[in-house]
Amino acid sequence: MEKEISQAVIRRIPRYYRYLGELIDDGVERISSNELSARMRVTASQIRQDLNNFGGFGQQGYGYNVKYLYDEIGNILGINQQHNIIVIGAGNLGQALANYVKFEKRGFVIIGLFDVNPALNGISVRGIKVRMMNELEAFVKKERVDIAALTMPKEKADETANMLVSLGINAIWNFAHLDLELPEHVVVENVHLSDSLMQLSYNIAKQRKRKE
User: Fold this and answer.
1) pLDDT tens across 39-65, in order?
2) How far apart are CA 85 and CA 196, in angstroms?
3) Whether 35 and 91 share a structural domain
4) Which of 17, 38, 106, 170 is the most exposed place for a label (fewest CB within 10 A)?
5) Looking at the structure, do residues 71 and 18 belong to the same domain, yes or no?
6) Structural domain of residue 136, as residue ranges?
7) What is the average pLDDT score of the chain?
8) Strand ranges across the sheet with 83-88
9) In DSSP terms, which residues pair with 86 in a beta bridge?
10) Could you tell me if 26 and 125 lie in one domain?
11) What CATH number has the domain bearing residue 89?
């Protein structure tokens, strides 16, 4: 039986990957859990515990080989393979996602943009043509689509997500401001930007109270 990994650990793993990438860029070949701890502001014991969920990767008295650990975490995250993404909603947020070139460096390739607004039909965003929603089914049948990103108003998001699932798409990156109710086999990552902003607001308020 596969070991269940906590969501807290899963949230930290991409951070390890990002920091290790920066270490590689800086020419660092090995690092101890204490040194990694100072960079990440996570305790060294927490780092060791997190990585032990996947096999450990460190050597006593040596620490971690940065490139090896980076590659292994990439394998854990599944970014050693390409993931094709379509974006439903080609407004400001959808176009911003399409323009973010760093996704492709991580293996996430946006292959299609879709919208209902005829004014957007045929325009190109970083070489990706905006298509109308009535072209979606034929596109999905022709192309391999791994992930659908929803950057559309919440009113139509649930209906659209269910249609995508019916077309065989089993991973949804949801920016619409509601929590989707989809079959259990569908992987959903909800991104609530306003929640993040409110958490920031809470921390600002807490800091102000300390100063009073």
Assistant:
1) 888 898 998 889 888 887 866 667 889
2) 24
3) no
4) 38
5) yes
6) 83-195
7) 91
8) 124-125, 128-132, 108-115, 83-88, 147-150, 171-174, 187-190
9) 112, 148
10) no
11) 3.40.50.720
Overall residue count recorded for the chain in this entry: 212
Q: Please give the structure tokens belonging to residue 154.
A: 């919440």
DSSP 144: -
Neighbours of 212 (CB within 10 A): 4
Place of tokens 């990438």: 21
Is the model's pTM score more than 0.85? no
- 93 shares a domain with 11: no
> Which of 51, 77, 103 is the last residue before a domain boundary?
77
* Residue ranges in the chain assigned as alpha helix (H): 7-25, 33-40, 44-52, 66-77, 92-99, 102-105, 136-142, 154-166, 193-211
* Amino acid letter for position 50: D
Distance CA(82)–CA(106), nearest Å, equals 8
Our count of domains for the chain comes to 2
CA-based nearest residue to 97, from 119, 128, 68: 128
Closest CA to 87 of 96, 77, 78: 96
Q: Do 44 and 102 belong to one domain? A: no
CA within 13 Å, CB half, 23: 24
Is the domain of 166 the same as that of 98?
Answer: yes
For tokens 């102000």, the residue is: 208
Same domain, 91 and 23: no
Do 103 and 179 have their domain in common?
A: yes
